[in-house]
Amino acid sequence: MNGVKKTPGLTNKDLFVRKMTKDILGGKWKPGDRLPSERELAAEMGIEKTVVHSGFEQLAAMGLVEIKPKSGIYVADYMKTGNIETLNAIVHLNGDELSREVAVAILDLRLAIEGMAFRDLALSHSAEDITHLRAMTAAIRARAQHSGVEELAELFFRWHREICILSGKSILTLFMNTMHDVSIAFWVNYLRMYGLTFALDRLERFTALLEAGDGEGAYQLLATGVADYLARLEEKAER
C-alpha cells in the first residue's frame, strides 16, 4: 500500500486501523508475528508516525495486537484473548476478508446458536410456527426473480433468525443480530455456491424436520451444511 487512499469521512488513522485489521483477520499476519515498526509502516503508507502509533493503540484495545515495550508490536492470539471489540472487528469485515480460522469460528458459533434453537423449537413449536416458516419460504421463492443476491441473502438470514425468535430464546436472537453483517457475506457466498433452488429446498427440509419434532435431525442437517460449505471454501482457496 503506497500511500493511504482518502475516503470521505475517514481519517488516516481510521484507514490504517482498517487495513491492519483486514491483514490480521485475513491471515496475512499470524498470531505471534512481529509487525513492522511504526516508522516502517508510516513510510510505507505515507502517513505520520504519530498516526501509526495511535492506530496501534486502538488495535491493542481491539485485542488484535500486543504492544511490548522495547521489543515491538506483535499480533495477539485474538481467538483466545480477544474481547467484544475483537468480535466487532470481525463482524464488520466481509466474509471473503476473513481467514479460514476465523470463518470456522464464526460458523461454529452459528451452529451452536441455531442448533440450540432448532432443538428447542422442535419440541415447542405450534402449528402456527410451521405455517409461518413455510410462508417465509414461499415469500423468498416469490421474490427470487426480482431480487439481487444480497437481498436474497438478507431474507435467508431473517428466516434462520426466525428460528431463534420462535424458539423463545431471546439471547440467541441477540447473538444472531450481532453477527448480521458477516452472516450476510456468508449467505451471499452460499447462494452463489449452491444456487437458490438448493437453498430453498434446505429451508423446506428444516421446516419438515421441525414439524416432525426432529430437532436432532435439523441440527445434523445444519452441521452437514456448514461442513460442506467450509470444504468448498477450502477447495476454492487452493485453486
TrEMBL record:
InterPro entries: GntR_C, TF_FadR/GntR_C, Tscrpt_reg_HTH_GntR, WH-like_DNA-bd_sf, WH_DNA-bd_sf. Residues 10-78 form the HTH gntR-type domain. Pfam families: FCD (PF07729), GntR (PF00392). PROSITE patterns: HTH_GNTR. Keywords: DNA-binding, Transcription, Transcription regulation. SUPFAM superfamilies: GntR ligand-binding domain-like (SSF48008), Winged helix' DNA-binding domain (SSF46785). PANTHER family: TRANSCRIPTIONAL REGULATOR, GNTR FAMILY, UXU OPERON TRANSCRIPTIONAL REGULATOR. This is FadR family transcriptional regulator.
